[in-house]
Amino acid sequence: GRANIGVVGLATMGGNLARNLARHGSAVALFNRSPQRTRDLMAAHGDEGTFIPTESITDFARALARPRTAIIMVKAGEPTDEVIRQLTEVFEPGDIIVDGGNARFTDTIRREAAAREHGLHFVGAGISGGEEGALEGPSIMPGGSVESYETLGPILASIAARVDGEPCVTHVGTDGAGHFVKMVHNGIEYADMQLIGESYDLLRRGAGMTPAEIADVFAAWNRTELDSYLIEITAEVLRQVDAETGLPLVDVIADRAGMKGTGTWTVQTALDLATPVTGIAEAVFARGLSTQTAPREAAQARFTEAQGYPGGTLAVTDRAAFVEAVRQALLAAKLVAYAQGFDEIRAGAARFGWDIDLAAIARIWRGGCIIRAGFLNLIAAAYDGDPADAPASLVLAPHFARLLDAAQGAWRQVVAHATLAGIPVPAFASSLAYFDGLRSPRLPAALVQGQRDLFGAHTYERTDRPGAYHTLWSGDRSEIRVG
Ligand code: NDP
């Protein structure tokens, strides 16, 4: 017999994905550049299902039933291009190459077009859930042709996470749509983690609570609308005690956050689309600031409490009330961050010609991926139905608007108190500014247009009649209509 699916690249992710496929009834062809990895996988897990190990790309292609379908799980970038070149040589028209790595969506668009020239289907599939997800059920975001999804869809559905019986996979859209949506997923993940971090900082420094006490708070929050994987693991991290020092682990970990690029891509893309994703941007910049060791040390030495700067503590008299205010602020700011992420997907879909069902995206994020949460059911409900009736922003969906009605007071208090105390809350504050920007009947954008017209004759529109206008600033200051 032949394999119905193959996996190229058998490191952590590829190996686990291959095992997941085999456990769910697929016959899986295996190939890895270094054959030892393939042998190791067979030795350790070869009895978990049907595997066809191969040690050349030609044998790999021979092992696959047609249309051949292969998932590439190698290092993103040049290695992915190299494997695509190899597969292109041995595959035939109608065959399907899936890239399950963390590719940039623009690379996926380029690769799809190139593969199409050879009559091949190329599917960029975002896969979230890390190592464990790959084995136990990830959230999968495939792009590529509708035709390829007929073959690929059932295979991916067999290995995806399930929520309420529904597999966490959907055909996101053509060419790079899947990797685009995976990118935004990661951006939202950055924002969510930053907001949780700010909440922790407020409770820790602001209210003087211990990591163990805050772990209990997060565990309690996990039984509210905030119920999510990220809140759950936050409690777990905060409870951990360092074996060596006996200190809370969080106090021993260096406060420099790393990143691998998808958050940055989300913000870069949002800038190109002129879609404000302030929560995500602040999260990326906050990680950047955390690694700026030299200026941080110098500023810590120079701008001290002795110099009259606030020292990061809050006078909290009613701790329970404060904890609840932070929870409300977190909920509101999180909603804004998700609203902004979905706006970016909508803007990307419009720009790149993808027909993306936002409700379906929210549904496949309910399980398997890092941002999985009950909250996504509410987002799916908000976007369900005719896209023409979709809310202009998630914050306007009736359920979420009521949530903001209830939370906005606490959100403002938290941002104001944090600011006075000198506790940085960039994501809380920028989300609030964004929300107030949406609500403002008049924005100073009018003044900016005036400035632009003065120095660059960029023209402006008027509130009272159509057309484009320019004031003769260096002349008699009369106004002319220019369009
Ligand atoms: P790595 O990113 O560490 O990549 C290692 C694999 O790539 C090995 O199989 C290696 O082969 C292969 N490889 C590297 N260069 C080449 C090349 N030039 N030609 C052929 N094969 C090559 O593996 P991971 O399993 O961690 O991740 C795989 C992909 O999945 C990446 O794109 C990653 O971004 C993505 N991803 C990872 C997640 C995670 O949690 N780790 C989560 C979601 C996605 P060899 O054994 O011969 O060295």
Secondary structure elements and their pairing?
Blueprint: E1 5-8, H1 12-23, E2 27-31, H2 35-45, E3 50-53, H3 57-63, E4 69-72, H4 78-90, E5 96-99, H5 105-117, E6 121-128, H6 130-136, E7 139-142, H7 146-159, E8 162-163, E9 166-167, H8 177-206, H9 211-221, H10 229-239, H11 249-252, H12 262-273, H13 278-290, H14 293-302, H15 319-352, H16 358-364, H17 375-383, H18 398-421, H19 426-439, H20 445-456, E10 469-471, E11 479-481
Parallel strand pairs: 1-2, 1-4, 2-3, 4-5, 5-6
Antiparallel strand pairs: 6-7, 8-9, 10-11
The structure holds NADPH dihydro-nicotinamide-adenine-dinucleotide phosphate (NDP).
Portion of residues within helices = 55-70%
Secondary structure tally, helices: 20
> Could you give the distance between the termini?
70 Å
Kindly state the mean pLDDT as a whole number? 98
Read across the widest sheet, the strand sequence of neighbours is 3-2-1-4-5-6-7
Assign an overall shape.
Answer: globular
Radius of gyration: 26 Å
Question: How many β-strands, per DSSP?
Answer: 11
Low-confidence stretches: none
The major pleated sheet works out as: 7 strands, mixed
Share of residues in strands = 5-15%
Bound molecules: NADPH dihydro-nicotinamide-adenine-dinucleotide phosphate
Helix and strand composition category? alpha/beta
